[in-house]
Each structure stands twice: as C-alpha cells, then as structure tokens.
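User: Hey, quick favor. My workstation is busy. Could you predict this chain's structure for me?
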Amino acid sequence: MIIKPVITEKMTAMGDSLSRYAFLVDKKANKLQIKKAVEDLYEVKVEEVNTMIYAGKTKSRYTKAGYISGRKNSTKKAIVTLAQGEKIDFYSNI
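Assistant: No problem, here it is.
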C-alpha cells in the first residue's frame, strides 16, 4: 500500500504545524486501505486521508544514439491528517 513517505521542506513544515504527512501509495489503494496501513505501520490515529493522482510526464532528450523520448509513470499521493497530539518521526530508526 505505502511505497514511501514524501519528505520535503513543505511537508516537514506541514507535519510540524498541522500534523499532516504525505506518502506515495499504490495507485489501486483506496482511502480506507491507506488509513489502516498508516495506523498499523506507525501506531497513530488517522483522522482524514486526502488522495491525488499525478499523471506521468513525457520526457525527452538528445543523446549520441539520437532523440529519445519516453514517459514517466503516474503516481498517487496521499496526505494523511493525524489526530491532535499524534506525531510521526521518520528519522527515529536511522
């Protein structure tokens, strides 16, 4: 279900102030499955899950072999809002 957490400046600030965390998730996962996976994995209480699907971008470059064009995969991102007082520490087990 959960592929990896999104750790950026914006999401770190959102986690500190609003208790919201972002994860890249499987495209077939629904909100209930994402909620259960986060609760089981991080042992927190999830209040809300918002999801968004990003379309894959077309990429192209010119190489020695000629002009190569391709497409990146589309992804699904979930923003999880935790209950008040809950927190996830991604750096605790490093």
